[in-house]
Design a protein that fits this description.
A: five-stranded parallel beta sheet; 9 strands; B: alpha/beta; five-stranded parallel beta sheet; 8 strands; 28% strand
């Protein structure tokens, strides 16, 4: 492993597999009565979230605590950031406390990479703009292996707002590296230019796109990034692109349904599907904890 | 330059003796479990269980314990820790555990193993069986069952080569590390 986890695009297949194998051992730890190990005792992590987050922030915080790491939760709205402090100065101040890990989510793409240029700590990207969300892709791959035995050879449809989705980008890189056949299923307005160069097939029809697939990966319609008139209305989006039980019948009978959360029920996914036996959305949450423990553990020795 | 310390026959003989000692000291196999430390200790624990079965006609359960998350040298090691699986198919609470490892050296692995065990339950007692004790202890830990005591230099390395690990024949060798 390298010192930082900034993206999946530049992460090797070997390192991806190392994380997934190590996460498997941490999943075992999480099933025990005592769910904590002393592996990172004495280390300090700061969770620096410039955007709202429930599951990623909670997941990182719990992963850190399960590894016996000291945790600083940096609350951006009540920090000197609102007084106009630069990102550089904020990071340098935090670093002065001797932190070993900086877990950062930022609305601008490239911020985690920028921090690696001057910080001594290991930087983990917890989502940057519309660029990448590497730990989400790793936990999705882990969940696929858990449910399907392997990623190699699977047909996977990534459905929805591909354009604004860092989850989609990281997943496309990760799933392709692990040997899956990846389909992008979205209206034309939400397909980023040049994505076909990443070895994916593009479908502009949901029924065709999920036909005979092993997994459907639904994406959240990102209301906060829809100012450019990408969608006519949520109702219309659901009518054409919402995953319903009827549409899911086009996929393989044992197809699993994934979603990175938070879900917009009745927009990209129907409640009946979200709560069905085919849904592995809650397993993704648990697996996220194991994967983030593995990432922190492996980066600590890099 | 390698030098053989134990041959295949020696290893078989030593493990049989330790199996007898475990059965004798514990007055049989009631509540007894063998827990091998990943990786070498697991193979030896399985062999000890087979030997005890021949002696006592009782099946002693065997588990595998990975100590990676409990090590104190994460910052010192230059390579990534290879995490293996802990496979503990039984509850260790109130059991008599015999921890099994191939070589005892500084004692730090055993310290880590004890911490890992305590997180899994509360055994009635923990004993330690090792094939080789090479000295140089850094912690106050000693084995209850020792196959062979071998005074070594810190510049030497002991390797336990077992068929289960893909070696043609069992042996224990010592070699100087450059």
């Amino acid at each position: 492993m390298r010192k930082h986890l900034i993206d999946i695009k530049s992460t090797s297949v070997e390192d991806i597999k190392l994380v997934l194998e190590t996460a498997s051992s941490f999943k075992d730890v999480l099933s025990r009565d005592i769910k904590k190990v002393p592996a990172l005792r004495g280390k300090t992590a700061v969770n620096l979230f410039f955007e709202p987050s429930t599951r990623t922030k909670t997941s990182f915080e719990l992963a850190e605590k399960r590894l016996s790491t000291d945790v600083i939760n940096f609350a951006v709205p009540t920090s000197s950031v609102v007084k106009g402090e630069t990102l550089y100065d904020t990071i340098k101040t935090i670093e002065s406390y001797g932190v070993d890990f900086i877990i950062i989510r930022h609305q601008s793409s490239g911020v985690p990479h920028f921090i690696t240029s001057f910080s001594q700590a290991s930087v983990i990207n917890a989502g940057d703009g519309i660029n990448e969300h590497p730990t989400q892709a790793l936990l999705d791959a882990f969940t696929l292996i858990e449910k399907k035995g392997t990623v190699e050879g699977l047909k996977i449809a990534v459905v929805g707002d591909i354009f604004h989705s860092r989850v989609a980008r990281s997943n496309i890189f990760c799933l392709r590296k692990l040997g899956a056949e990846v389909r992008i299923v979205a209206p034309n307005t939400l397909v980023p230019k040049g994505i076909e160069n990443e070895g994916v097939q593009i479908y502009n029809n949901l029924e065709d796109g999920i036909s005979d697939v092993d997994a459907v990966m639904m994406l959240r319609i990102q209301n906060e990034r829809q100012s450019g008139g990408f969608l006519s209305s949520k109702d219309e989006y659901f009518r054409f692109w919402g995953l319903t039980s009827k549409r899911l019948k086009n996929a393989k009978p044992d197809c699993i349904v994934m979603h990175p959360g938070p879900m917009n029920r009745g927009v990209e996914i129907d409640s009946e599907v979200a709560d069905s036996a085919q849904s592995v959305i809650h397993a993704q949450v648990i697996n996220g904890l194991a994967v983030r423990m593995a990432v922190l553990y492996l980066l600590s020795t890099a | 330059m390698k030098r053989e310390l134990l041959s295949k026959q020696d290893i078989t003989r030593v493990l049989l003796r330790i199996a007898h000692e475990i059965a004798e000291r514990n007055k049989g196999c009631e509540g007894l479990c063998l827990v091998g430390i990943q990786s070498g200790g697991v193979d030896l624990a399985k062999r000890l269980a087979a030997a005890i079965k021949n002696i006592e006609d009782t099946v002693v359960p065997v588990a595998a314990l990975d100590i990676s998350f409990y090590r104190d040298d994460l910052n010192i090691k230059k390579t990534h820790p290879v995490v293996k699986k802990t496979d503990m198919p039984f509850d260790i609470t109130d059991k008599k555990i015999v921890l099994v490892d191939d070589v005892i050296y500084t004692g730090r692995s055993i310290r880590a193993a004890l911490d890992a065990l305590m997180d899994l339950g509360r055994p009635a007692a923990v004993q330690l069986a090792v094939l080789i004790d090479r000295g140089h202890r850094e912690l106050p830990i000693r084995a209850d069952y020792v196959g062979k005591n071998i005074p070594t230099s810190k510049t030497e390395q002991i390797k336990v080569l077992l068929q289960e690990r893909g070696h043609d024949e069992d042996s224990v060798v010592i070699q100087r590390v450059e």
